[in-house]
Amino acid sequence: MRLVLLGPPGAGKGTQALRLVQRHGIVQLSTGDMLRAAVAAGTPVGLKAKAVMESGGLVSDEIVIGIIAERLDQPDARKGFILDGFPRTVAQADALDRLLTDKGLKLDAVIELKVDQAKLLDRILNRAAEAKAKGEPVRKDDDPEVFKTRLEAYNRDTAVVAPYYSARGQLQQIDGMAPIEKVTQAIDSILETA
Ligand code: AMP
What we know:
The protein is about 55% helix and about 10% strand.
């Protein structure tokens, strides 16, 4: 199964992706996680991405597409994957399309988590508080000011990705404000018919 999860930062893509990984035994490909790992390891990609990520902007299409192209070639991605946080621009969506076509593959579903953006800041602040309480590191970009920039980047560059898939008849939308388990059920019922 090959799936794309769309939605603004804080919509619950990561939470749902983890649940899908557990249920379906496929891998979660989160470009945010890959970039954070590159930053932590101090790789050339990490060095380029660090400041942009900390400011809440988008890392260049070239870098992100390169990371995904490499990742899709790894053996664990063959059984299927959930893309979380990619594609974030139409150029990335086009690149994904080419990458999959070259491999003779296609997406089984593109699911958008629809959320009330006015409620997202609270969710992000909760995520930061929960991480802190568990003694886990708090993401630097889960700061209210940086979050505003991330949401602006979403509305400027990423909001057009859902209509891109809708125009191709591939988009399914679900209520991302529902409780976590309900959202998972909604995704599962889409996947049953995919
Ligand atoms: P995320 O964990 O998905 O919220 O991503 C954290 C940050 O990584 C974003 O705010 C961007 O700076 C960067 N990032 C992650 N995925 C992408 C992408 N597909 N395109 C551009 N930048 C990305």
